[in-house]
From TrEMBL:
Residues 93-211 form the Putative exodeoxyribonuclease 8 PDDEXK-like domain. This is Putative exodeoxyribonuclease 8 PDDEXK-like domain-containing protein. It holds the Pfam family DUF3799. It comes from the Bacteria. InterPro entries: PDDEXK-like_dom_sf, Put_RecE_PDDEXK-like_dom. It comes from Hymenobacter crusticola.
Length: 239
């Protein structure tokens, strides 16, 4: 567990509804994913797909906010959802973290290098005296085994999310938990390593720098950068 300076203070964890969090004028990890997709020439995801209730969304609700879970939603297998939840809770360490942690907290912070107003909404934060300050993020996955999920952590930019969240909250550790949504329904826990955090940090810094007022933005990115920057009331530079 890292030792923080005497005057150190983490940003506050806020209890916001999802709608209020989405409306907050700040840059989220999902905004960075939109920039990444534009850089890689991927078309934007349709709004209908973004709003559709997915198995992953249902699983997160059942695991972290079970009182908000609504059974019988179209296309959702409730039995499978609760099976996945039970799989996580059967892991003694993960179940203890679930019992001790704060689910779905939000945070608004300023990234110090670019001075960009940012926001995050973590799955679970565990802050216990005498224990590492821990962030946990749960992912449903089709990974075949632990090593496959570990590879996905880089390929899907989970390392970027881990660095973005960890740097903001000065976390001591970040756990990525992959939950297989097909047989044999295994659970894979990856403790994000310092090299993974370094790689993830490079990814999010590259994207945040595209939003700086004096950034040289390629013409094919201008529209996407403008849309994301509008969340901050910024006007990106033209190429």
């Amino acid at each position: 567990m890292s030792v923080q300076p005497e005057n150190f203070r983490r940003p506050d964890l806020l209890r916001l509804s999802y709608d209020d969090y989405r409306a907050a004028p700040a840059i989220a990890n999902s905004d960075l994913s939109r920039l990444r997709d534009a850089l890689n020439g991927r078309p934007p995801r349709p709004i209908s797909a973004l709003n559709a209730l997915s198995l992953g969304t249902a699983f997160h609700t059942a695991l972290l906010e079970p009182e908000l879970y609504t059974p019988g939603q179209p296309g959702i297998n409730d039995t499978l959802v609760w099976w996945l939840v039970d799989g996580v809770k059967l892991n003694p360490e993960l179940n203890a973290l679930l019992q001790a942690g704060t689910p779905e907290p939000s945070c608004i912070f300023t990234e110090p290098t670019t001075n960009t107003l940012c926001k995050l909404r973590a799955d679970l934060v565990v802050d216990q005296p005498g224990h590492p300050y821990t962030i946990i993020d749960f992912k449903t996955t089709l990974a075949r085994d632990y090593n496959h999920f570990l590879a996905q952590c880089s390929g899907y930019d989970y390392d970027r999310q881990a660095a973005f969240y960890s740097d903001a909250l000065h976390a001591d550790r970040f756990l990525l938990v992959g939950v297989q949504k097909v047989e044999p329904f295994d659970v894979f826990t990856v403790e994000v390593s310092p090299p993974m955090l370094t790689e993830g940090r490079a990814k999010y810094m590259r994207l945040l720098k595209l939003l700086l007022p004096n950034a040289e933005v390629p013409s094919y990115l201008t529209e996407t950068v403008r849309e994301v920057a509008n969340n901050l009331g910024q006007t990106p530079a033209e190429s």
